[in-house]
Write a structure and sequence with these properties.
Elements lengths: L1 H18 L1 E4 L1 H11 L1 H21 L5 E6 L2 E2 L4 E2 L8 E9 L4 H67 L5 H36 L4 E4 L3 H5 L7 H11 L1 H22 L5 E8 L8 E7 L9 H49 L3 H14 L5 H36 L5
Parallel strand pairs: 1-6
Antiparallel strand pairs: 2-5, 3-4, 5-7, 7-8
Helix pairs in contact: 1-4, 2-4, 3-4, 4-5, 4-8, 4-11, 5-11, 7-9, 8-9, 9-11, 10-11
Length: 414
């Protein structure tokens, strides 16, 4: 009875799971992902923050107002002697930014906004790949778990029947033990797969911000659409044009060049214009003055920052070339993987058919009628179980390889 109990628990747990699931197609999952994913929302806020810095870069330096008032006049024994016979001083100073520094700062702020947008694109590419790959993985795991449950139910029925016959002395106890060992093997495989399944569902919760488990809606024709032959050169061209991480490397190089220009312009001193009113402390009473001040570039000509910016530009240029090489390697590996996965899927699909289930039902009935030995039944049962699992794995490999093509090309190929 303990095997019947275990089977009922497994069936109940999976039925309870079905009651807390939401059925989604891949398109529906994409829509929820774009609406609710918090990482994408945070990245969008980051873009808005960078756009605000463009506004700040356009702002001109504020003028400086200075007031100097008499606090105590010892000659006349007066405090705050600032009337017509007292003393007060007012000055206004405005910094004039020279050398095009303000223009460079605006361009750098705009470039940072562009980088933030590309970072969002790259984040979207990475998260969407996790979503799509996880979607097909959950489908494969869920389908395999359902098949494991059906097999365990069949075995549990057989074990109960064999235990009764063995207790009456009609069958050897070793046959019961042999069936139980098969039951344990499938049950262990199911437990391991279930752990991976729930871990994958947890990642899906984070991506979609949904409280329910996801039940992917996938049909066999969906997999048939993933075996189209692709041109490596077309995939590479698509990747070089669309990959946001490659664009990021290019735009980072452009940003470094803008920073180098700014550092050179910072060597040009700015001018401060000022005007002032002095009531009594100057050469004349109530005199008005104008003037300017400019730092003399004698000791500090910003040479260190200029040299640092030059090395940074060279470093980023080298990284950009390395990134282009990585993109080519990733595209070639993904192309080879989809080619191999497509061949394996087409081959195993031609071998797998509904005859598997028909033969399984026939073998099960013949075994119950005593037309097959326990060894023949167990051997077939284990082979049948492995075949079902392998078929689902090959389908998942194909889907994952197709999603990898979308990922490395940053395009919707599939």
């Amino acid at each position: 009875m303990k095997f019947l109990y275990a089977a009922l628990v497994a069936l109940f747990s999976f039925s309870a799971l079905a009651q807390t699931t939401v059925r989604l197609s891949l398109a529906q999952a994409d829509s929820i992902f774009l609406e609710k994913n918090l990482l994408l929302l945070a990245a969008q806020y980051n873009i808005q923050a960078k756009e605000a810095l463009v506004i700040q870069a356009r702002a001109y330096p504020n003028p400086t107002f200075t007031a100097d008032l008499n606090a105590y006049d010892p000659e006349n024994n007066k405090a705050f002697h600032i009337g017509q016979t007292g003393q007060k001083f007012f000055a206004l100073e405005q910094l004039i930014v020279l050398g095009g520094k303000r223009k460079s700062e605006i361009e750098i702020a705009r470039q940072n906004t562009k980088l933030a947008s590309l970072e969002l694109e790259d984040l979207l590419r990475n998260l969407r790949y996790q979503l799509h790959a996880g979607f097909y993985t959950i489908y494969q795991q869920r389908t395999t778990l359902e098949k494991f449950n059906r097999q365990l139910q069949v075995l549990d029925t057989l074990i109960n029947a064999y235990e009764k016959q063995a207790s009456r002395g009609n069958l050897p106890l070793k046959d019961v033990i042999r069936l139980k060992s098969v039951y344990f093997k499938i049950s262990n495989d199911k437990s391991e797969l279930a752990n991976n399944y729930f871990a994958q569902q947890q990642r899906m919760h984070t991506l979609l911000q949904l409280p329910e488990y996801v039940e992917p809606v996938v049909s066999d024709p969906d997999f048939d659409k993933l075996i189209a032959r692709l041109s490596y050169n077309l995939l590479l061209d698509s990747a070089l044009q669309n990959r946001p991480d490659l664009k990021l490397a290019n735009e980072a190089e452009a940003l470094s060049l803008l920073n180098l220009q700014l550092q050179k312009k910072l060597a040009v001193p700015d001018v401060a214009l000022n005007s002032s009113f002095d009531q009594r402390s100057g050469a004349f009473v109530n005199q008005l003055n104008v003037g300017l001040s400019i730092p003399l570039p004698l000791w500090n000509r910003n040479r260190g920052n200029i040299r640092s910016a030059q090395y940074e530009t060279q470093s980023i240029a080298a990284f950009q070339k390395q990134k282009a090489t990585e993109v080519q390697a990733e595209v070639r590996a993904a192309w080879q993987d989809i080619e191999l996965s497509s061949q394996e899927y087409q081959k195993i699909k031609s071998l797998y058919s509904n005859d598997f289930n028909t033969v399984f039902e026939g073998v099960n009935k013949n075994f119950q009628r005593g037309n097959l030995s326990i060894l023949e039944f167990v051997d077939f049962f284990e082979s049948y179980n492995e075949s079902l699992s392998d078929y689902e794995r090959v389908k998942n490999y194909l889907a994952t390889a197709a999603m990898q093509i979308n990922y490395v090309t940053a395009s919707k190929i599939y």
